[in-house]
Write a structure and sequence with these properties.
The chain is an all-alpha fold. The chain is 92% helix and 0% strand.
Length: 186
């Protein structure tokens, strides 16, 4: 059995998969030292880098959200100003329409007033011309009637007072006849 034990021990020593005990101890100590160094020096730096990266990403997201909110606020402000500008333009168009209608009405009123003034001036001028024509006609009729009456009566009617009375009487008779005929035709 000793031989067997020695053979198994020899077989253990010659097994290429299993390391020697001394190598195992030194490897474990070296691994622990490396693990402590990594945990003491590298892990905090890695954590700090990861935290910085997380902060940068979260900050970027927050900035993006803030920029999007600002863009939305600007868009809403733009839409409100656009709606206000459209409303103002509509109001100005309506005011212009009303002012145009008012100007047209004023011009129409002025034209009608000018038309009335021209008609009244023409009527007064016609009336003045009619009165003048009537006076000229009366004078001419008077002269003719005096002349005719002088021929009919056979005496001269050169006395102006007498002429005036004869002419006035003659004209009154003519006007009376004209009124009577107008009443008959009406």
């Amino acid at each position: 059995m000793t031989k067997l034990l020695a053979a198994s021990l020899a077989a253990e020593d010659s097994n290429p998969i299993l390391p020697h005990t001394s190598e195992l101890v030194v490897g474990t100590i070296a691994f622990a030292i490396v693990l402590l160094l990594v945990g003491w020096k590298l892990v905090p730096q890695i954590r700090q880098t990861l935290e910085e990266r997380t902060d940068a990403i979260e900050g970027g997201l927050k900035r993006a959200e803030a920029a999007q909110a600002e863009a939305q606020a600007t868009l809403d402000d733009y839409k409100a100003k656009l709606a206000e500008a459209r409303h103002e333009a509509s109001r100005l168009r309506e005011e212009a329409r009303e002012q145009g209608a008012q100007i047209v009405a004023e011009m129409r009123e002025q034209a009608q007033a000018e038309s009335r003034r021209i008609v009244e001036a023409a009527q007064s001028q016609i009336e003045a011309e009619r009165q003048q024509a009537l006076q000229q006609l009366r004078a001419e009729v008077g002269t003719l009637s005096v002349e005719l009456a002088g021929r009919v009566v056979g005496e001269s009617l050169e006395d102006s007072a007498r002429q005036s009375r004869v002419v006035d009487r003659f004209l009154e008779e003519l006007e009376g006849r004209a009124r009577t005929q107008e009443q008959i035709t009406s």
